[in-house]
């Protein structure tokens, strides 16, 4: 999202905390990073989880808050062709849109797969902090 568009959006997701992962499976070729408190970037990117490949040649993944849909999305980071196949869920790529298990509390089932590999699976629970920008003109 453009920084100017995000700046004018209100209310908006500002942070995420209490990010908890349950029933977790991580392929041994990947490591995961979960921030204690995730904060939004100036362009509105709120990353809840990162999966990094240990071996070269495998893609990385980010799990982020989707402001428009009020849910999470998973993005494949790497080759543009693979990222598009992952986004569309084609040719053995799966996981761009996790399943919403519960709205209150927020619980999502993440299941990330490549054509030849189950990368990650977990239930993610989090709290999303909303912010409200108030501008005063004189």
Question: How would you briefly describe this protein structure?
Answer:
This protein is mostly beta strands and 138 residues long. The chain has helices spanning 3-8, 80-88; strands at residues 12-26, 30-33, 37-39, 47-53, 60-66, 71-77, 99-102, 107-114, 117-131.
How would you describe this protein?
By secondary structure, the chain is mainly beta. The strands form 2 sheets. It has a 5-stranded antiparallel sheet with strand order 3-1-9-8-7, with no helix packed on it. The relative contact order is 0.24. It has one domain (3-128). It has 2 helices and 9 strands; from the N terminus they run H-E-E-E-E-E-E-H-E-E-E. A hairpin with a 4-residue loop joins strand 7 (99-102) and strand 8. The longest helix has 9 residues, at 80-88. It has helices at residues 3-8, 80-88; strands at 12-26, 30-33, 37-39, 47-53, 60-66, 71-77, 99-102, 107-114, 117-131. It starts with a helix and ends in a 7-residue tail after the last strand.
């Amino acid at each position: 999202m453009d920084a100017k568009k995000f700046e004018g959006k209100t209310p908006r997701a500002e942070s995420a905390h209490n990010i908890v992962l349950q029933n977790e499976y991580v392929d041994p070729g990947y490591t995961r990073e979960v921030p204690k408190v995730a904060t939004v970037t100036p362009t509105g990117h709120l990353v809840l989880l990162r999966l990094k490949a240990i071996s070269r040649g495998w893609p990385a993944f980010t799990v982020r808050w989707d402001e428009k849909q009020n849910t999470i999305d998973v993005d494949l980071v790497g080759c543009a062709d693979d990222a598009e196949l992952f986004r569309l869920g084609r040719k053995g790529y799966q996981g761009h849109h996790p399943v919403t298990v519960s709205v209150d509390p927020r619980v999502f089932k993440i299941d990330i797969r490549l054509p030849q590999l189950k990368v990650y699976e977990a239930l993610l629970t989090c709290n999303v902090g909303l912010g409200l920008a108030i501008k005063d003109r004189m």
